[in-house]
Amino acid sequence: MSKIAVFASGNGSNFQSIVESSKEYDYNVDILVCNQANAFVIERANSLGIETYIFNHKDYKDRSIYEKEIINYLKVRDVKLIVLAGYMRLLSKTFLDEYEGRIINIHPSMLPDYPGINSIEDAYNDKASNIGVTIFYVDSGVDTGKIIEQSGFTIVNKSLEKVRQMTHELEHELYPKTIQKVLEEQ
Ligand code: GRF
Fold first, then answer.
1. Which of 16, 105, 106 to mutate to test the pocket of ligand 1 (most atoms within 8 A of CB)?
2. Whose CA is nearest to atom 1 of ligand 1?
3. 81 occurs within a structural domain
4. Which of 98, 173, 176, 185 gets the most CB atoms within 10 Å of its CB?
5. What domain range includes position 48?
6. Could you tell me if residue 128 is inside a domain?
7. What pTM did the predictor assign?
8. SS (H, E, C) the chain
């Protein structure tokens, strides 16, 4: 059974779906790493019985200091894969080097289209032919890493709210099974 760490900063619906779906797979969520003490994802972790590592990035002079602390913590716990799910901080070279090829992220667009924030709204307002979800290996850019999995649908005849809902449902379906695939390929 491989241990994974999920990093999140906000709502945590993906975190919850990963924890709940992990029962069907060969991994378990060992720890939630969160940089926002008041994030709803922490309440979800508490209800699901998942340990949390909470820090405030503003308490540190620079990124590499808190990242080294997190790395040491994860190494002791023998975490095999870092899964970003709405984690709103970039990872530095320190982190990327330590976990090279073992950090993945999810984004609500058909990358390379619509990286960064507001991707669902922007794609919708542009009447993009396809909207969807991409899972990729993290590199030093914003949503630029090698694509692992992608799935989309058409926005024709759908409201923005419906598109948003379908995108998140797709995330919750695609991320847990892609984590299993990535672990198997390691
Ligand atoms: C998701 O849309 C994910 O693709 C993006 O951030 C959002 C996080 O949502 N990276 P949640 O916190 O998992 O509900």
1. 106
2. 86
3. yes
4. 176
5. 2-106+135-147+175-185
6. no
7. 0.96
8. CEEEEEECCCCCHHHHHHHHHHHHCCEEEEEEEECCCCCHHHHHHHHHCCCEEECCHHHCCCHHHHHHHHHHHHHHCCCCEEEECCCCCCCCHHHHHHCCCCEEEEECCCCCCCCCCCHHHHHHHCCCCCEEEEEEECCCCCCCCCEEEEEEECCCCCCHHHHHHHHHHHHHHHHHHHHHHHHHHC
* Beta pairing, strands 2-7 & 27-34: parallel
Report which residue type is found at 126: D
Which of 110, 171, 175 most suits a substitution to test ligand 1, by most atoms within 8 Å of the C-beta?
A: 171
62 is a domain residue: yes
78 belongs to a structural domain: yes
Tally the domains of the chain. Answer: 1
CB 132 less than 6 A from any atom of ligand 1: no
